Amino acid sequence: DKQTYKSVGVIKKVDAENSKITIDHEDIPGYMSPMEMTEPVKNKTMLETVKVGDKVEFELERTGEKLLITKLNKIGEVAVLN
Predict the structure, then answer these.
(1) How far is Cα 16 from Cα 12, in angstroms, rounded to an integer?
(2) How do strand 54-63 and strand 20-25 relate by DSSP bridges?
Protein backbone atom coordinates (compact mmCIF):
# COMPACT_ATOMS: atom_id res chain seq x y z
CA ASP A 1 0.00 0.00 0.00
CA LYS A 2 1.74 3.12 -1.25
CA GLN A 3 1.07 6.64 -0.12
CA THR A 4 2.57 9.77 -1.62
CA TYR A 5 3.12 13.02 0.23
CA LYS A 6 4.32 16.39 -1.00
CA SER A 7 6.17 19.13 0.82
CA VAL A 8 8.83 21.80 0.57
CA GLY A 9 12.21 21.87 2.28
CA VAL A 10 15.83 22.92 2.19
CA ILE A 11 18.60 20.47 1.37
CA LYS A 12 21.07 20.13 4.24
CA LYS A 13 23.19 17.25 2.97
CA VAL A 14 23.62 15.26 -0.23
CA ASP A 15 25.02 11.77 0.25
CA ALA A 16 25.58 10.59 -3.32
CA GLU A 17 27.54 7.54 -2.21
CA ASN A 18 24.55 6.11 -0.35
CA SER A 19 21.89 7.74 -2.57
CA LYS A 20 20.45 9.64 0.37
CA ILE A 21 19.49 13.24 0.95
CA THR A 22 18.87 15.24 4.12
CA ILE A 23 16.02 17.73 3.91
CA ASP A 24 14.90 20.21 6.54
CA HIS A 25 11.25 20.20 5.55
CA GLU A 26 8.09 22.08 6.31
CA ASP A 27 4.94 20.28 7.36
CA ILE A 28 4.17 17.21 5.27
CA PRO A 29 0.37 17.38 5.19
CA GLY A 30 -1.24 14.25 6.58
CA TYR A 31 2.03 12.67 7.63
CA MET A 32 4.79 14.52 9.45
CA SER A 33 5.41 17.81 11.21
CA PRO A 34 8.35 19.98 10.21
CA MET A 35 11.71 18.35 10.92
CA GLU A 36 15.00 17.34 9.36
CA MET A 37 15.15 13.87 7.86
CA THR A 38 17.57 11.78 5.84
CA GLU A 39 15.95 9.47 3.32
CA PRO A 40 16.97 7.48 0.25
CA VAL A 41 16.17 8.80 -3.21
CA LYS A 42 14.54 6.71 -5.90
CA ASN A 43 17.20 7.49 -8.46
CA LYS A 44 20.79 8.51 -7.74
CA THR A 45 20.80 10.90 -10.72
CA MET A 46 18.26 13.05 -8.84
CA LEU A 47 21.13 14.11 -6.59
CA GLU A 48 23.06 15.59 -9.52
CA THR A 49 20.50 18.34 -10.00
CA VAL A 50 20.49 19.70 -6.43
CA LYS A 51 22.96 20.91 -3.82
CA VAL A 52 23.07 21.98 -0.18
CA GLY A 53 21.06 25.17 0.30
CA ASP A 54 18.61 24.47 -2.50
CA LYS A 55 14.97 24.90 -1.65
CA VAL A 56 13.01 22.06 -3.20
CA GLU A 57 9.53 20.75 -3.65
CA PHE A 58 9.66 17.03 -3.07
CA GLU A 59 7.53 13.94 -3.13
CA LEU A 60 7.85 11.25 -0.53
CA GLU A 61 6.55 7.77 -1.13
CA ARG A 62 5.72 5.59 1.85
CA THR A 63 5.31 1.84 1.63
CA GLY A 64 4.75 0.55 5.14
CA GLU A 65 7.70 1.86 7.15
CA LYS A 66 9.86 2.42 4.08
CA LEU A 67 10.30 5.97 2.82
CA LEU A 68 11.62 7.00 -0.55
CA ILE A 69 12.03 10.44 -2.07
CA THR A 70 10.68 10.09 -5.59
CA LYS A 71 10.78 13.67 -6.87
CA LEU A 72 12.98 16.70 -6.24
CA ASN A 73 12.21 20.01 -7.90
CA LYS A 74 14.44 23.00 -7.13
CA ILE A 75 12.42 26.13 -6.50
CA GLY A 76 15.07 28.44 -5.01
CA GLU A 77 18.13 28.79 -2.82
CA VAL A 78 18.72 29.85 0.75
CA ALA A 79 21.87 30.73 2.62
CA VAL A 80 22.90 27.77 4.75
CA LEU A 81 24.66 28.66 7.96
CA ASN A 82 26.97 25.94 9.23
Answers:
(1) 13
(2) unpaired
* Closest by Cα among 81, 8, 14, 9 to 51: 14
Supply the pTM of this predicted model. 0.91
SS (H, E, C) the chain: CEEEEEEEEEEEEEECCCCEEEEEECCECCCECCEEEEEEECCHHHHHHCCCCEEEEEEEEEECCEEEEEEEEEEEECCCCC
Contact between residue 45 and residue 34 where contact means Cβ atoms under 8 Å apart: no
8 phi, psi to nearest 5 deg:
-130, 145
- 17-39 confidence digits (pLDDT tens): 999 999 999 999 999 999 999 99
Would you say how long the chain is, in residues? 82
